[in-house]
Amino acid sequence: MPASERRLALIEATLPLLHQHGRNVTTRQIADAAGVAEGTIFRVFNSKDELVDEAVIHAFRSGTFVDQLAGVDTTLPLRDRLVEIAALMQERFISSFGLIRALGMMGPPDIVKADADRRRDWRRHVAHAITALIEPDADLLRVPPDEVTRALRLLVFAGSHAEITDGELMTPEEIVDTVLLGLMTERGREY
C-alpha cells in the first residue's frame, strides 16, 4: 500500500479512538484498529502526536462532508431535501463537538484555527454545496438560497450543541421547519 493510502488508513482508524480516549490513545490501539503492526505508524508519521494532529485536521476538513451532500436526492421536495441536509450537518457537528470534548478543548484545535484561510475555504466549499441543493427552489424563498444556507447552518449548530440546548437537541425536522417558516414566501408555505 502506498504511503499516502497508509497515512489515510491510520488517520481514519485513529478518529474513533480519539472520541473514546482523547489524546491518551496509544499507538497499540491505533495499530490494532488499523490492522497493522505498531511500527507501521512510524514509517509514515514521525510521532503519535503528528498522527493525532493529522486525524484532528482530517475530522474538520470539508471534503468528506461535501461528498455526503452529493448523495442528497435533488428530486425530493425542498423540505425533505433540507431535512436530509440538516441531518448530515447535525451528525457532523455532534461528531465535532464530541471530538473537541474528548480532546479536552473548548473549541476547534489550534492547529485547525491557525490556518484561517483553509477554514474559510472549507466553510465556503460546504456552503456552496448546500446552496446548490437549495437553488432549484429559490422561487419559494423570501431570501436568496445562500441566506437559507447560512440560517440553516446557524440553527443546526445551535440546535445540535448539548450545552446550548440544555441537552435537548433539536431534530432535523424541527430545525428545517423553523428555518422555512421564517424564510419561505406565502407560495412556498403552500408547497
Q: How would you sum up this structure in a few lines?
A:
This protein is an all-alpha fold and 191 residues long.
- Span between N and C termini? 52 Å
Give the tally of β-strands.
Answer: 0
CATH C-level of the largest domain? Mainly Alpha
Radius of gyration, in Å, reads: 19 Å
Low-confidence residue ranges: none
Q: What structural class results from the helix and strand content?
A: mainly alpha
Name the helicity range: over 70%
In round numbers, the mean pLDDT is 88
CATH architecture of the largest domain: Orthogonal Bundle
Order of helices and strands: HHHHHHHHHHH
Number of helices: 11
Inertia-based shape: elongated
For the largest beta-sheet, the strand count, sense and barrel status come to: none
CATH fold descriptor of the largest domain: Tetracycline Repressor, domain 2
Beta percentage is under 5%
How many domains is the backbone divided into? 2
Notes on the protein architecture:
It is a single chain. This protein is mainly alpha-helical and 191 residues long. The protein has helices at residues 3-21, 27-34, 38-44, 48-60, 63-69, 78-102, 110-113, 116-134, 145-159, 172-183, 186-190. It folds into 2 domains: 3-55, Homeodomain-like (Arc Repressor Mutant, subunit A, Orthogonal Bundle); 61-190, Tetracycline Repressor, domain 2 (Orthogonal Bundle), CATH 1.10.357. The protein is 70% helix and 0% strand. Helix 5 packs parallel to helix 8, helix 6 packs across helix 10 (172-183) and helix 8 crosses helix 9 (145-159). It is elongated. The termini are far apart.
